[in-house]
Write a structure and sequence with these properties.
The protein is α/β, with parallel strands linked by helices and about 325 residues long. It has 9 helices and 15 strands. Strands 12-7-6-13-14-15 form a 6-stranded parallel sheet. Strands 1-2-3-5-4 form a 5-stranded mixed sheet. α7 (about 240-255) runs parallel beside α8. It is globular and about 60 Å long. The relative contact order is 0.19.
Length: about 325
């Protein structure tokens, strides 16, 4: 047993970590069960206690009409649509869409750090990326502190974006920046259709707004209350940006006692490569595990619905 009687995993050298959360360590195995490889030990989860959490896959971050260039986030979108979302539907895994959607009341309590994220940029139009070329070392071998001035942008949270032209030539009002129920905070592209389809699924999709980097910040958020009410213990994370909102939510989830698995190919970021490497490094040990959407789909294809005796220590897969 790993943990306490109130919240534990099981572990074996052969099968890795069992995250199915039976009533007691000695209870019969929980079925159905899905096995997944990770960057270290394999894991086993059960659909009824698992949720796929998709973070910030919105027009504001992904739409070409807002000047967003194709990048990791768009690659993640394609993988989610091809692998993770269909797999979750097939296995009756809850899908939770967790996205920026600030209310007018929320605007009155936003801390300065959030206003700065979306209202300032580097004055010389470079980025925050630091290239390790060895020239920023001081005589004693320590690294110099990087200094780059900032300037306020023309807009920020709550400000109107105005009319924009979509790739198909139509014109829409993008709404106020990151405010809920605006075009810029709608789900991007085919993900919007996937969400609408999911509302009619056997386990209907749900969507929650967030007003901070973490969607779980606070003593009791709507999404936390929902997860607890549904008996969900294990969270599969995808979305953008890997090292910002996805990571912030993972950290809070892990501290709250949820199992956290980063689906690496279902995430993307515009940050430098070393930022994502930091997330991978810590997610595979400090906060949980690192797996993939492709691995989730493979696990669902091989889901073990129930134990069927075929002899001592033998099991047959019933799909």
């Amino acid at each position: 047993m790993v943990g306490t009687p109130a919240n534990f995993w099981l572990f074996s050298n052969r099968n890795g970590f069992d995250l199915t959360h039976p009533p007691t360590p000695n209870s019969p195995p929980v079925y159905p069960r899905i096995s997944m490889s990770t960057t270290n030990s394999p894991i086993t989860v059960t659909p009824s206690k698992t949720a796929l959490v998709i973070i910030d896959m919105q027009n504001f971050f992904l739409s070409a009409a807002l000047g967003r260039k194709r990048g990791e986030g768009h690659d993640a979108e394609a993988v989610l649509l091809e692998h993770a979302i269909p797999a979750a539907r097939e296995a009756d895994i809850q899908i939770v869409w967790l996205t920026w959607g600030i209310s007018d009341q929320g605007l009155t309590t936003l801390p300065p750090s959030i206003w700065r994220i979306f209202g300032f940029e580097i004055a010389d139009e470079s980025s925050f990326e630091v290239e390790d070329d060895g020239t920023d070392l001081m005589n004693d071998g320590t690294r110099k502190m990087l200094h780059r001035s900032e300037k306020k942008t023309g807009g920020g949270i709550g400000d109107p974006i105005g009319d924009i032209t979509l790739p198909n030539g139509s014109v829409v009002n993008a709404g106020r920046t990151l405010i809920r129920d605006q075009w810029n905070t709608e789900l991007h592209g085919n993900l919007a259709e996937a969400f609408q389809t999911g509302l009619k699924a056997g386990v209907p999709d749900v969507r929650f707004h967030k007003e901070r980097l973490s969607g779980l910040l606070g003593p009791s958020t709507e999404v936390e209350s929902f997860l607890n009410k549904q008996g969900i213990k294990t969270l599969l994370f995808a979305g953008v940006n890997t090292d910002q909102c996805v990571l912030a939510t993972i950290q809070d989830a892990a501290s709250m006692g949820f199992d956290t698995i980063l689906l690496r190919d279902g995430c993307g970021t515009t940050s430098p490569e070393y930022a994502r490497q930091m997330v991978d490094f810590n997610c595979q040990k400090s906060w949980g595990f690192v797996s993939s959407c492709v691995e989730l789909a493979s696990g669902v294809r091989n889901i073990i619905r129930q134990k069927v005796e075929e002899g001592p220590g033998s099991y047959r897969n019933e799909l």
